Amino acid sequence: MLTFLKRVFIKPTSTVVEEEVVPDGETFIPTLPDGVRLYAVGDIHGRADLLRRIHTLIAEDEAETSVLQRKIIVYLGDYIDRGDDSKGVIDLLLDEPLLGYERVFLKGNHEAEFQDFLVNPTAGHVWTQYGGLSTALSYQVRVPGRVSAEQRMRELRDQMLEAVPQNHHSFFTSLRFRYELGDFFFVHAGIRPGLPLGQQKPPDLLWIREPFLTYKGRLEKMVVHGHSITELPFVSHNRIGIDTGAYHSGHLTCLVLEGATRRFLVT
């Protein structure tokens, strides 16, 4: 089955989207239950300013329509690291929720690495290489100097355990690996093709890229994910990717689903 890529404008956000088109018309059309609108937010990575903006766009979008039976926001993980206000992101999510919405918080690989570091400080060498130091700074923690690398990671871990508020620790431990609704499967990174959704393993849900990203076959449900950065939201017949590299691009993407329709809000 031949496929090709096209770029299309999807209103009302006038956002260009990279979309894979199946010419033979065999595309599966996923839907949500009637009366439900779902907003899926991509990787935030410490950009509290963009999160606040996307919340404003969601509220404005919802205000333009009639009353809905259910309003849901799914956050796809990677709240922390890289950007300069990881603490502010968690504060905003916990202290300033959009009222009237069911909220689903998924775990990203960066939250998993951070939690591993809090248990095992030797894991800090990986966490700090991929943006963890910016998270430490957002909690007013400074990396110790003039000590061995091993001692530095132990001291950094101890400071983070003390500096991170308890409600933030609770938030990290409460994160889910997956969420399903209607014909959609929401996850941070993706799934292992060929393995039933009920048998998917956390490492793949958090980390996978290949063979998921280039898989052309049918999947049980349309997979909505982040983790793999693209300049534009990506739509194909089996997945929708919405990590548009917010921490450096300034573009945080939110997918809006209702019935069989989809559109995007982008900062």
CATH superfamily of the largest domain: Metallo-dependent phosphatases
Distance between the termini: 35 Å
Task: Could you tell me the CATH topology label of the largest domain.
Answer: Purple Acid Phosphatase, chain A, domain 2
Number of separate helices: 8
Report the β-strand fraction as a percent range.
Answer: 15-25%
Q: Give, in spatial order, the strands making up the sheet with the most strands.
A: 1-2-9-10-8-7-6
CATH class division of the largest domain: Alpha Beta
Give the beta-strand count.
Answer: 12
- Percent helix: 25-40%
Question: In terms of structural class, how would the helical and strand content be classed?
Answer: alpha/beta
Taking pLDDT < 50 over at least 5 consecutive residues as the criterion, the unreliable ranges are 1-15
Q: Average pLDDT, to the nearest integer?
A: 90
Number of domains: 2
Instruction: Give Rg in angstroms.
Output: 19 Å
Q: Please describe the biggest sheet, giving its number of strands, its sense, and whether it closes into a barrel.
A: 7 strands, mixed
At CATH level 2, the architecture of the largest domain is: 4-Layer Sandwich
Described by the principal axes of the CA atoms, the overall outline is globular
Helices and strands, in order, run as: EEEHEHEHHHHEEHEEEHEE
